[in-house]
């Protein structure tokens, strides 16, 4: 019996080779949480081990330096998110297994969104795996106690990518709805008035004695946390490494813990 021969034109071989190459393209978007090994998932550690190339913001890479000593590493400074994503795409399309590092969780003010948008825009064929991490709001909540036990919202006070008027509108709505509110990026060296405006908006809807938790470097070295009230929280050190959690009308402080009741009968 004769075997059927498979005849491929040169162009078809090239197409198939290109498809195979694209099929090998892989990007892990890894949430490293606070940045120490004990708070990273096993899957995140495995993905880093599988990767040939590690790309990320220099501060986050420094936190995991011991995990990437034998890797090709590309680091960059703040506001280079698009460039980092494009570099990850370019290397993945060359057949490299790439880890794009995102502090906290990559889907919460992280790298997942911009990478997926770039891939969609250019219609790249790349296998993307998003690996979640402990977000700053989760870390801060654990440090403070149980402030997020009922409905809550996260709002970034950074107006680099979002108009400040829209941010203020969101603060008004969240406060009026009596949500627990977590504030990301509350203050920087140049951006000092937004947090003051946010406090004034919140005081229109919430009692001045509403519990507030201030956490710097949550679950990292030099961690600091403070329990205070809505009218007093600006007296504490606040910067870009700080996350602030403002309670709802039922939140209280007991035994040095911030607690928002879920509604159970106790």
Could you provide a short overview of the structure?
By secondary structure, the protein is of the alpha/beta class. The chain is 33% helix and 23% strand. It folds into two domains: 10-134, Tetrapyrrole methylase, N-terminal domain (Cobalt-precorrin-4 Transmethylase, domain 1, 3-Layer(aba) Sandwich); 137-259, Methyltransferase, Cobalt-precorrin-4 Transmethylase, Domain 2, CATH 3.30.950.
Note the topology.
Layout: H1 10-23, E1 26-31, H2 42-50, E2 53-57, H3 58-63, E3 72-76, H4 81-93, E4 97-102, H5 112-122, E5 127-131, H6 136-144, E6 145-146, E7 152-156, H7 164-176, E8 180-184, H8 194-205, E9 211-216, E10 224-229, E11 242-246, E12 252-254, E13 257-259
Parallel strand pairs: 1-4, 1-5, 2-3, 2-4, 6-13, 7-8
Antiparallel strand pairs: 8-11, 9-10, 9-11, 12-13
Helix pairs in contact: 4-5, 7-8
How would you portray this structure in words?
- With 266 residues, the protein is α/β, with parallel strands linked by helices.
- It folds into two domains: 10-134, Tetrapyrrole methylase, N-terminal domain (Cobalt-precorrin-4 Transmethylase, domain 1, 3-Layer(aba) Sandwich); 137-259, Methyltransferase, Cobalt-precorrin-4 Transmethylase, Domain 2, CATH 3.30.950.10.
- The protein contains eight helices and 13 strands.
- The chain has helices at 10-23, 42-50, 58-63, 81-93, 112-122, 136-144, 164-176, 194-205; strands spanning 26-31, 53-57, 72-76, 97-102, 127-131, 145-146, 152-156, 180-184, 211-216, 224-229, 242-246, 252-254, 257-259.
- The strands form three sheets. Strands 3-2-4-1-5 form a five-stranded parallel β-sheet, sandwiched between helices.
- Strand 7, helix 7 and strand 8 (180-184) form a beta-alpha-beta unit.
- The chain is elongated.
